[in-house]
Structures are given as structure tokens and as C-alpha cells.
Amino acid sequence: MLDVKGGDEQSFELLLQRYRTPLVNFLFRMVKSREQAEDLAQEVFIRVYRAREEYVPTAKFTTWLFRIATNLALNSLRDHRHQKLEMSIDAPLTADSDEGDERPFEVADKHPTIEQELVENERKKMIRRAIEKLPEKQRAAVLLHKYQELDYAEIAKILRCSESALKSLLFRAYEVLRVELAPLVARHGAKE
Amino acid sequence: MSCERMESRILAYMDGRLKDSERAEAEKHFAACAVCRVRVNEFRSVSDLLGELPMVEPTPAFDVRVRARVAAEPVKQSWWAWMRPSPRIAFAASMLLLAMLWVRYDAHPPTLPISPEEADASMMQDISVMEDHDTLANFEPLKELPPPVEATADSADDNDQQM
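The joint structure predicted for all components is written out below.
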């Protein structure tokens, strides 16, 4: 990032290549729409580019990056919540319109049968829905902890809370997930 | 260790981020507490299940759009950027400075200090003007003075009578 600050355009390209996938994944899990996740990820990169001259390396770059991403995601969710409230509750929902978002990226490496594929898809759908059911801040904490593997201090900075509050947030989130995923958890436990 | 205290450590235990002494303490608690033992096992299962979700790759259009937006960003110039070395600006600034100096010199030529002898010589050059009667008669400040008193014959007689 310091090279980007120094006006090195190629370093920005490196940042883009390094963080594009983690960012889009994080935002996709946060806002549930891939198109919206890409729009938000673009916005994150533009903000990083605009702020490059003022960047002071007081925190890790990933902390700064995911802080911007988290703020944008939470704002977007808040805005969309308002929009949804304005929509009629009787409006028919398109059946699982967001469910197919991941399909083009799944690699069918073991040639499963149609039945196995259906079971597998149902399982992933269940996991995804369990994550989506989490309150926004708990969801962000779980995603940053599980998928970005950030340490507690970093996640606490991103979510602007204390480390003890973060641990409590993560504990509550895992309790919710344990209940939501109970059938899968039981099967998983029986396997081991 | 209490179950309540275990809540803040259970994920750190799963992540392997506890100190050796804390880990030993947690394991001692799990051995004694079935609720926490089940919980930690189920949390592990949850973590494994979360790991099953595939990563998504950004579309190729994503990179193109980011690069296009970066390219469209206006070039940021700080307020002092104009002072950066530029032959044109440097030339224009020096010409302006020279012009200002020339105008100032032309309007107020510098006066050199003169010696007393030179001052006297300068004054002597003006003597002819100072002795010129017409010039003095028309000298404005002198006109404002009261006319001089003239000693006439009448006034002499008056003086004699009084005596």
C-alpha cells in the first residue's frame, strides 16, 4: 500500500489481484447478492485508491480494507432494508433467485449422481441460509473469523468493539449456527 | 473454570490461540462438564460445515470495471503542485520579477548621498534665481506679508507738532 501511496500504479494492480477474491466473497456472504457484492467491492477499491495519499500505516492493510468493506456492506444492507419495507409484502418472490449465484463457480470434480448433487446443493443452501440468518454484526464477525482468518484484535478493530465483546459476539453467532445447522451438525458429529 | 468463563475462551481453544496453561485449564473443564464438551464438539462441526461453502471468483468484468473507474479518477493535485519545477512557469516568474524591478527603478532612481561641498556648489548655482527681483516679487508666501511702513514727510511734521 505504501508503494501505491508513492504513486506506483502497478502496486495498486497487485492489491487488486490479491484482495479481489477475498473481498468479493466476504461481501457476497454479507449482502447475499453477487452482483451487489461486486459493485461494493469496486467501491472499496476506489476508496482505497482515493485515500492512498492519506494512508497512514497505523493498522494492518487488511484491517483497513475490511473495515471499509464492512461499513459499505452494513450501509448497503440498511439501505436495502428500507427499500424492502417500501415494497409490498404480497409481491411474489422469485424462487431462490440468489441461490444460483454460486453454481457457475462450483467445480464438479467427482462426477456425482444427480441425487448426490441435489443433496449436496441442499446442504450448501442450508449452510448459506444459516449464515444469512445471523444478525449483521455477528455475520461479519463469523465471516472475518472463519473465511479471512483474521485475528481477534483485527476483527475487533474492524467492527469497532473490544476484543471481549467480539469473543462474546462470536460465541453467540456459533450458538445460533449450532441450532440452525442442528441436523447437519448431528450427522457431522456421528461421522467422527 | 466456570462454564460462563469458558464462553469467552471456547473459540480461542478451537483456533489453538490459547496459552498452554489456559488450554490445559479448558481441557480440564471439558473433562468435567458434559455441556461444554458437547458444545465445543458441535462448534467444531459448525466450523467444518462453514468451510464447505465454495469460494466465488469475481467475474472478468469486475477487474475491467475497477480499472476503468481508477483510470477515470481525476488526478489529485495539491495546492503547491504548481510550484513544482516547470520551465515555463520559472521563465514567466523571472520575467515578471525583472519587469517589477525595472518599473520601480524608473519611477524612483536611487539618490546617492552628496558631500557638503557639492551641496554648497548646488546652492550657488541657484543664487542668480534667488537674487532675481521679479522672481522674489512674485514669490507667493511673500505676498501675504503686510506692506512695509514708509517714512513720509507728513508723518515727520506730525512728530514736530507734538513736540
